[in-house]
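Preliminary data (for renewal application), calcium ion complex.
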Amino acid sequence: MSVQPYPVITTPGQTFSVSYELDTDTQVRGFAVSIAYDSSVLSFVQASRGTLFANQNIGWWRVNTDTLNVLHVECLIFGAGLSVTGPGNMLNLTFNAIGGDFSSLRISSQSLYDVSGYAIPSVNKNHGAVIIGNQPAYLSARCFLQGAMDGDAMMHNLLRPHLPLNSPYPGAVQAVTDIPEGVVDWMYLELRESPNARAIATQPVFLLKDGSVCSAGKSFVVFMGLAAGDYYLVLRHRNHLAIMSAITFGLVSSGAPELADLSLATHVYLQSGIVALSDGRCALAAGDADQDGGVFPSDRNEQWQRQNGTSGYRSADFNLDGVVDSQDLQLFWQGNAGLMSAVPGALQ
Ligand SMILES: [Ca+2]
Ligand SMILES: [Ca+2]
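Predicted structure:
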């Protein structure tokens, strides 16, 4: 199942529709779905049955909006043995965009019913998203931090209780009112038109446990007022080495976001500033507590030694578990000593 188009691009005051689509050739008698949205950004206008059910005798059809921020819709064909077969349009939803600048349209629960009325197991969910504002450009990005790795393709978020509500990076200001559940840490994203050029746009971003890099409160990276185009991406972290993409990735202004996957070593500029994981994956190397571009004695002498034994949001906490101790030194700084970032230019 998917919410389409993905994402919706609109502006404040505009009304738009999305569809809930059955993506496979499954035989269904009906469905129940709950879609969560941000009611400070969107107001629900109406729901209508999709074309798959257009000529069917619908035994029940309910739309319920009494739960704040969640829309519930249920639909079932009346009469034993009747069904429709996908792929096709199940449901259409109309919203009004109240203000900026983003809402997900998250399928918080769904049931598809087979011809006998039983729920079909393990149905995919492809959530929707709405970007509201002028000239957005967006993409998806992915990377890992060595210190937070928990397996080869997932990170822990032990530091989450200590994360500040304000971005810890200078430059573009970003503040949030809460830190979502899956956040590992703040990172900092730069867009460049060439590897040696100054950044043309920067943004503090959230890194999620699965490696997704997202604008705060959004489900991918969004820049407002930026021309769509191809850019080099620089990803920085406050105590890991910075990396840049080896190739450009497209920020688009419509259609599905491109994935800039910097967890693949071949996508990293000079394959530098990283440590190898399995299957060609990589992570930003830990140990650069003072953010001078290298894992050097100063990171040990000026940062780790002074912080050893302390807890909280600390620059020498290389494994991001909220305490500075011998593990940070022995497992990360020592193993990476001498490594340097190849990204030209300092943090902007
Ligand atoms: Ca350093
Ligand atoms: Ca630690």
